[in-house]
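Here is the promised in-class demo. Please do not try to memorize the tokens; focus on the logic of going from shape to residues.
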């Protein structure tokens, strides 16, 4: 009975097992051993020596051709001579890896166990690979990219004295992700990675840094060659992609930085090279889509100044040092102030007045626009609550704010906190808010409109598809950009556009307002063209809250 149990256990072992006596002859062997080495059933093992069995396995092609019987025999002797059992790893001809343990037994002889660890090794290799490569695109990750760049910088290449870094950011990727879904977005990233591989040379290092940002480090003959290669990448990625979600067109902006080997320390500093390329990319994105921009030393100075300004803005916001001023909105027919626009103002203790055109985009980039927007809205509602009931207050909302899932809830919470009626609040958004509209954006706008909040389309006429936006969302007001009024006195085209927009507003029941009224003649012109409201320095510059109360009472 005990022998039968032993045979059952031996048969069901996951490991192969062999026992050899003191003459090195096989006395015990299980089925798993035969299975691992694919030993035919008609080949008798029992009574054969270990050397005879291994000789059969070598001759029958179980091991690679480079493995000899003498090599295996010496390996077994060495393993048996060790004071402690350590695994011996052998690769079979079919690529499998076998871990073998040899243990001596009392009276002579030994027991060998054989375990197929191929999948384990593959899993370990996969884990090691994932630690160095991007899981989605299989490009080098940031760490591996830097290491590869360091290797390139340390290797002299004849005719390629310049180390170049290309920092790429995809244009319109968020639009693809929001419109087609994340699965198609991932598919697009994989397709972009394939095109980058196709463009790169074998020795180039291509990596994904995260999101829709990629980088490529290479050696080139000179700066001109690096820029030519970057422009080629722009052309290649600009070719439409055929994805499961349909035909998709995107672009790419690229920052390029180079180091020559004349300065070995700088050339080896790939981290600095990446930083320089990133600065160049920011300049490229600030210009227009599909732009290639080369790094210039002045960009570093600008970046340091920008970093200081960023810290100062964060501190000013935390200390509530951002002021809110108000510019009156005037009814054309009566000249009466019927509302105000709230405008953030920042008086820096050292720099003096910092223009909104400087700190508002900065707040958007560094993630401060949401708390800044909430601060301005809260202050405006609190101030306006003390003014006459007929005065409305208009507050600008950035694209970043409106796309926040919590935007509508935040606005409603502020209205409740300040006891300010929703019907007196007007939120101004630009065409860019709807240019790549998302479900979240539209839900926010409709939720607030249902609560009584009104909406104005700001800077009308400066975008590409202004009229389509009036069909996609029921705006209450159109604000014509100040540039049209500035040109209206001398340009018939500008005047014709103002006239057309005024007529459009009348037809659709939408209030029309023109910005930038600075002279009495411009005011009379706006009134003659049928614009309902006007705004500009002729009536007042943006002023503090206390002066608004005085102005209305006058």
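The designed amino acids, position by position:
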């Amino acid at each position: 009975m005990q022998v039968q149990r032993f045979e059952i256990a031996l048969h069901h072992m996951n490991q192969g097992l062999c026992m050899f006596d003191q003459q090195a002859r096989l006395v015990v062997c299980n089925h798993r051993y035969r299975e691992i080495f694919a030993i035919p059933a008609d080949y008798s093992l029992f009574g054969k020596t270990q050397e005879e069995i291994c000789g059969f396995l070598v001759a029958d092609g179980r091991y690679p051709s480079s493995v000899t019987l003498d090599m295996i025999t010496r390996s077994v002797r060495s393993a048996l001579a060790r004071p402690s059992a350590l695994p011996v790893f052998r690769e079979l001809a079919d690529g499998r890896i076998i871990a073998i343990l040899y243990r001596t037994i009392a009276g002579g002889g030994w027991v060998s166990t054989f375990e197929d660890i191929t999948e384990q090794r593959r899993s370990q290799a996969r884990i090691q690979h994932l630690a160095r490569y991007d899981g989605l695109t299989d490009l080098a990750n940031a760490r591996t990219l830097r290491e590869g760049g360091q290797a390139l910088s340390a290797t002299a290449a004849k005719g390629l004295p310049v180390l170049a870094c290309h920092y790429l950011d995809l244009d319109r990727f968020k639009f693809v992700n929001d419109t087609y879904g994340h699965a198609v977005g991932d598919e697009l990233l994989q397709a972009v990675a394939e095109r980058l591989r196709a463009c790169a040379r074998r020795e180039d290092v291509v990596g994904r840094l995260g999101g829709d940002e990629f980088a490529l480090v290479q050696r080139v003959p000179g700066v001109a060659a690096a820029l030519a290669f970057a422009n080629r990448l722009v052309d290649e990625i600009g070719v439409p992609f055929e994805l499961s979600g349909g035909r998709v067109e995107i672009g790419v902006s690229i920052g390029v930085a180079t180091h020559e080997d004349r300065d070995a320390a700088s050339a080896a500093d790939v981290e600095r090279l990446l930083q320089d390329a990133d600065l160049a990319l920011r300049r490229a994105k600030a210009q227009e889509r599909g732009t290639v921009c080369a790094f210039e030393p002045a960009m570093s100075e600008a970046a340091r100044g920008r970093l200081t300004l960023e810290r100062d803005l964060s501190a000013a916001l935390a200390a509530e040092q951002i002021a809110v001023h108000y510019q009156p909105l005037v009814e054309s027919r009566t000249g009466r102030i019927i509302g105000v626009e709230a405008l953030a103002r920042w008086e820096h203790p050292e720099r003096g007045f910092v223009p909104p055109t400087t700190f508002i985009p900065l707040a958007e980039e560094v993630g401060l626009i949401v708390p800044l927007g909430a601060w301005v809205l809260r202050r405006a509602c609190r101030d306006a609550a003390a003014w006459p009931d007929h005065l409305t207050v208009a507050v600008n909302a950035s694209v970043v704010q409106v796309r926040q899932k919590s935007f509508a809830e935040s606005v409603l919470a502020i209205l409740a906190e300040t006891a300010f009626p929703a019907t007196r609040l007007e939120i101004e958004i630009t065409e860019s808010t709807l240019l790549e509209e998302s479900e979240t954006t539209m839900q926010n706008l409709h939720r607030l409109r249902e609560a009584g909040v009104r909406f104005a389309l700001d800077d009308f006429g400066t975008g590409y598809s202004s009229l389509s936006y009036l069909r996609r969302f029921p705006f209450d007001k159109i604000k014509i950009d100040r540039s049209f009024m500035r040109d209206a006195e001398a340009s018939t085209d500008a005047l014709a556009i103002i006239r057309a927009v005024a007529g459009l507003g009348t037809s659709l029941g939408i209030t029309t307002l023109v910005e930038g009224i600075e002279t009495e003649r411009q005011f009379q012109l706006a009134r003659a063209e049928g614009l309902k409201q006007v705004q500009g320095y002729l009536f007042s510059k943006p002023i503090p809250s206390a002066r608004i109360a005085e102005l209305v009472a006058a």
